[in-house]
Amino acid sequence: MGIVVVEICDGNLMTEVDLEGIIESEYPDVAVLENTCLNNCGMCAMRPYALVNNRRIFAKTLEECIEKIKKAIEEELAAFNEE
Question: Matching InterPro entries, A to Z (predicted)?
Answer without folding.
Answer: DUF1450
